Structure formats: structure tokens, C-alpha cells
């Protein structure tokens, strides 16, 4: 198998893993609605890292440019973002997904309990998903980011403001962005409390 064919085969595997995770999440969301009259998931976004991004990450990490490095050195080729309605939904969705027998947790970073210094909040999981092929099974890593609508709103705009401009962001503006993240976190907590009281 030449490099191009192997690369396309690898992308197909990661794309299949994304579909697998998305389907699992949609089934969980639908099942929760039937049992509890509540959808914990607002929406799901998926992305497959571009060839250029993969190569750039290999170079940044100092890995050789080869297929084995791609599979062993980069765990976020496949990405799924789950945007939840309420704060408690984040861990609920994570727990429901991780309770499935064929999902294996590889890594977890909780930036909700421990936000990044800039104010970023999200729950990051890297899981291994089995992909069944003719005569073999491949276990493919998928990065899953789970966050609330408010967290996603802040993260999207913060990324746009900081990375879509040619100018450096001043310390005072960084402080304002952090302040806004904290305000949205307080709103998240208040909306969760309102939801709980209305559904008590």
C-alpha cells in the first residue's frame, strides 16, 4: 500500500470513528428525552483534522513525518464537540458515554473544575472507539469536548478575537475576556439552579 492510499485509509478510519461517537451520543440524547423529558445535548459538531494540520502538529511535536507517527502521536485527528444545555448535563453526557462497554477512556482533562488561566472551560475526553472492518477491528482515538452553550459561546468568540487578528491582544483585553468567562460561568450556575427548581 503506497503512502497516499494508506493516508486515505487512515482518514476513513477516523471519519468512521467520528460517525460512531456521534451516533452513540444521538442515541443517548434521544433515550434521555424519552425517559426524563429532557435533552441534555443542544447540538453536536464534528471535525476531521486537515492533512496540513496533521503535518504541522507532527513537526511541532518533533515526530517523523510518517503514518505510524500520525496514528501514535496525534490523538485529536478525529474531534467531536458536544454542546449541552445546562452545566450538569456535561458530566451526565460524559458518564453515559463512558459507561458503554466498547468505549475506553484514554485521557481526561476537566477545564470546568479547573479552568485555564484565560477563562476557558470545557471537559475534554480522549476515548478509543472500535471500528469493525472486514476481518479485523481497529481501535481509533477520538477527542470529545463537552461544554455548555455559554462555554461554547465564549470559546468561539475568544478564538475569533485572538486568532483572527494580526494585532497582539493586550493584557487589559485578556483580563476583560477572563472576566466575561467568569460572568458566563456564574450565569451557567444560575440557569442550572433555575432549571432544577422548575423541575423539582
TrEMBL record:
The keyword Transferase applies. GO terms for biological process: guanosine tetraphosphate biosynthetic process. Its EC number is 2.7.6.5. Keywords: Kinase, Transferase. Residues 46-169 form the RelA/SpoT domain. GO terms for molecular function: GTP diphosphokinase activity; kinase activity. SUPFAM superfamilies: Nucleotidyltransferase (SSF81301). The keyword Kinase applies. Pathway: Purine metabolism; ppGpp biosynthesis; ppGpp from GTP: step 1/2. It comes from the Bacteria. PANTHER family: GTP PYROPHOSPHOKINASE YJBM (PTHR47837), GTP PYROPHOSPHOKINASE YWAC (PTHR47837:SF2). This is Putative GTP pyrophosphokinase. It comes from Catenibacillus scindens.
Amino acid at each position: 500500500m503506497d503512502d497516499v492510499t494508506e493516508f486515505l485509509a487512515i482518514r476513513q478510519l477516523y471519519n468512521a470513528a467520528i460517525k460512531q461517537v456521534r451516533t452513540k451520543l444521538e442515541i443517548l440524547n434521544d433515550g434521555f428525552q424519552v425517559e426524563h423529558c429532557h435533552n441534555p445535548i443542544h447540538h453536536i459538531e464534528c471535525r476531521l483534522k486537515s492533512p496540513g494540520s496533521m503535518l504541522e502538529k507532527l513537526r511541532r511535536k518533533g515526530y517523523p513525518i510518517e503514518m505510524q507517527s500520525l496514528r501514535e502521536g496525534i490523538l485529536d485527528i478525529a474531534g467531536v464537540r458536544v454542546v449541552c444545555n445546562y452545566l450538569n448535563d456535561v458530566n451526565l453526557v460524559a458518564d453515559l458515554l463512558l459507561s458503554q462497554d466498547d468505549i475506553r477512556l484514554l485521557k481526561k482533562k476537566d477545564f470546568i473544575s479547573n479552568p485555564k488561566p484565560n477563562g476557558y472551560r470545557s471537559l475534554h475526553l480522549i476515548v478509543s472507539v472500535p471500528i469493525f472492518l472486514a476481518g479485523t477491528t481497529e481501535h481509533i482515538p477520538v477527542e470529545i469536548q463537552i461544554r455548555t452553550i455559554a462555554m461554547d459561546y465564549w470559546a468561539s468568540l475568544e478564538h475569533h478575537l485572538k486568532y483572527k487578528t494580526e494585532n497582539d491582544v493586550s493584557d487589559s483585553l485578556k483580563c476583560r475576556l477572563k472576566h466575561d468567562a467568569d460572568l458566563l460561568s456564574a450565569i451557567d450556575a444560575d440557569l442550572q439552579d433555575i432549571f432544577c427548581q422548575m423541575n423539582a
